[in-house]
């Protein structure tokens, strides 16, 4: 999360405020380390949308890819407006997100986004 937060801060510093952050942790009570800082950025209008998911708390959307499915139309709208996707985190999460994006967008569109530098991954 620290890497994405740094990226968001850089975008904000250059007055890019159309940011949508989807991030997941295990439990809200223990893993909401940056929640206050992120909500402050959102309250200032510097992050348009934040979706947090917690895999061990029993919510309907447990993982990042679940948000993508629920908000498919919004995702497509953002991409049509030129949005970039930055995936940062575990390899398993990235694989699941990639599979979901392939289902939503199709392999060709995802490949086009990659070639255009609009789909980037930092996974470990």
Question: Any descriptors?
Answer:
two-stranded parallel ribbon; 52% helix; Rossmann fold; alpha/beta; 124 residues; two-stranded parallel sheet
Structural features, described:
The protein has two domains: 1-61, no CATH class; 63-124, Nucleotide-binding domain of ferredoxin-NADP reductase (FNR) module (Rossmann fold, 3-Layer(aba) Sandwich). With 124 residues, it is of the alpha/beta class. Helix 4 packs parallel to helix 6 (91-105) and helix 6 packs across helix 7 (107-115). Helices cover 52% and strands 18% of the residues.
Contiguous uncertain segments of 5+ residues: none
The fourth-level CATH homologous superfamily of the largest domain is: Nucleotide-binding domain of ferredoxin-NADP reductase (FNR) module
- Portion in strands: 15-25%
Q: Helix count? A: 7
Q: Largest sheet, described in full? A: 2 strands, parallel
Give the number of DSSP strands: 4
Residue-averaged pLDDT, rounded?
A: 88
Please give the radius of gyration in angstroms: 14 Å
Main β-sheet, spatial strand arrangement: 1-2
At the first level of CATH, the class of the largest domain is Alpha Beta
Q: How widely separated are the two ends? A: 13 Å
- What structural class results from the helix and strand content? alpha/beta
Q: Give the SSE order as H and E letters.
A: HEHHEHHEHHE
Summarize the structure.
The protein is of the alpha/beta class. It folds into 2 domains: 1-61, no CATH class; 63-124, Nucleotide-binding domain of ferredoxin-NADP reductase (FNR) module (Rossmann fold, 3-Layer(aba) Sandwich).
């Amino acid at each position: 999360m620290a890497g994405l937060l740094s990226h968001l801060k850089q975008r904000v510093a250059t007055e890019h405020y159309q940011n949508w952050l989807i991030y997941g942790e295990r439990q809200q009570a223990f893993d909401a380390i940056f929640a206050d800082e992120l909500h402050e950025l959102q309250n200032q209008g510097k992050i348009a949308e934040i979706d947090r998911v917690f895999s061990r708390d029993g919510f309907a959307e447990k993982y990042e890819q679940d948000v993508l499915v629920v908000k498919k139309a919004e995702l497509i709208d953002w991409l049509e407006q030129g949005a970039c996707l930055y995936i940062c985190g575990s390899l398993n999460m990235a694989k699941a997100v990639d599979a979901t994006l392939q289902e939503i967008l199709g392999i060709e569109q995802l490949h086009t986004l990659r070639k255009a530098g609009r789909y980037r991954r930092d996974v470990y």
